[in-house]
């Protein structure tokens, strides 16, 4: 029954006269080639089952089991959250394309709730590689510099797998030229991205790479229906006004990959990436942006080359960003180091 935990399921409590026996006849036996109610009408399992294990529909084994669990089922249904988590790892050959990959993920409505640049440890590499199946490309990630993303949305595992495409970039290009591996993968081993293959593997991989994210676990009574209700717990989960924050990273920051460290800090502060664009600003745009920043010489920095424009969202975004800056500036955070270093470079 492990396959039930690979993704969301639909639980139904239905009622009619002689409902238990009628439903058992309607769905047929556990065998995929069972007969329906008569020779002319196939059962529901005949029509929709994948194989003898994935038989499409499950039913209570007896009347007592059905009655004892109907209230628990209804309770589960009232508490179900449709959003689940999955993990993406951008491999070394594609890390410079983070801004493009994030844009495609945003279009697919995948919310970034965790972002981290890391050198893969032996434990993390083993956790990722053992879910590869026949493809062993992820076993080569040990010690490599990668970017990990914890993503959330409805049916996130299947959505991300479809977005990434076939594990072999050459096959991915034939099937969908806009799949992420088709665009950013180099070979079957250096294919650009790893995506969790199932719900259970996603949970294990996220715990390995993002131990700081707290994940709710279902109780023993919720082993089937409750599995997809695991979610990330955010601090201060209050219904407050959402605000948009605009950031512009100049060429110097992009070239040094410094924007990844800043993004990581902001995502940890519950900011969500709403939109982004890599572009070259016109003289007019540079002057207007510099004027808004009230920073002498800023327009020159923006005109030097490409800029990465980011729109971020969270409740009380402006004050939260200021608090994040103050917190990092007060300690030894990366945001403080980056602000100080770039300010020094500009003054010199």
TrEMBL record:
Keywords: ATP-binding, Kinase, Nucleotide-binding, Transferase. Residues 83-217 form the Nucleoside diphosphate kinase-like domain. InterPro entries: NDK-like_dom, NDK-like_dom_sf. PANTHER family: NUCLEOSIDE DIPHOSPHATE KINASE, NUCLEOSIDE DIPHOSPHATE KINASE DDB_G0292928-RELATED. PROSITE patterns: NDPK_LIKE (PS51374). The keyword Cell division does not apply. Transmembrane segments: none annotated. This is Nucleoside diphosphate kinase-like domain-containing protein. SMART domains: NDK. GO terms for molecular function: ATP binding; kinase activity. Belongs to the NDK family.
């Amino acid at each position: 029954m492990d396959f039930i935990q690979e993704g969301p399921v639909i639980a139904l409590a239905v009622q009619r006269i002689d409902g238990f026996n009628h439903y058992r006849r309607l769905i047929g036996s556990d065998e995929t080639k069972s007969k329906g109610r008569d020779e002319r009408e196939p059962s529901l399992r005949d029509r929709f089952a994948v194989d003898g294990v994935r038989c499409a529909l499950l039913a209570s084994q007896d009347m007592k089991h059905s009655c004892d669990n109907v209230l628990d089922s209804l309770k589960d249904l009232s508490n179900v959250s449709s959003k689940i988590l999955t993990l993406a790892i951008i491999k070394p050959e594609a890390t410079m394309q983070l801004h493009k990959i994030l844009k495609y993920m945003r279009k697919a409505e995948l919310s970034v709730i965790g972002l981290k640049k890391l050198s893969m440890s032996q434990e993390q590499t083993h956790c990722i590689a053992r879910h590869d199946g026949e493809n062993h490309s992820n076993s080569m990630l040990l010690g490599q510099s990668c970017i990990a993303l914890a993503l959330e949305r409805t049916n996130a595992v299947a959505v991300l797998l479809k977005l990434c495409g076939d594990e072999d970039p050459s096959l991915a290009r034939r099937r969908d030229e806009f799949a992420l591996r088709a665009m950013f993968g180099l070979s079957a081993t250096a294919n650009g991205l790893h995506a969790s293959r199932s719900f259970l593997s996603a949970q294990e991989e996220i715990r390995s790479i993002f131990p700081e994210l707290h994940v709710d676990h279902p109780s023993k009574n919720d082993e089937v229906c409750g599995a997809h209700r695991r979610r990330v717990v955010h601090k201060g989960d209050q219904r407050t006004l959402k605000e948009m924050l605009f950031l512009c990273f100049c060429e110097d920051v992009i070239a040094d990959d410094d924007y990844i460290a800043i993004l990581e800090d902001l995502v940890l502060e519950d900011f969500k990436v709403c939109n982004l664009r890599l572009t070259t600003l016109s003289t007019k745009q540079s002057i207007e942006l510099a004027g808004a920043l009230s920073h002498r010489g800023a327009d020159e920095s923006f005109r030097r080359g490409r800029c990465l424009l980011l729109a971020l969202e969270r409740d009380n975004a402006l004050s939260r960003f200021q608090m994040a800056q103050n917190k990092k500036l007060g300690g030894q955070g990366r945001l403080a180091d980056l602000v100080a270093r770039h300010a020094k470079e500009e003054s010199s």
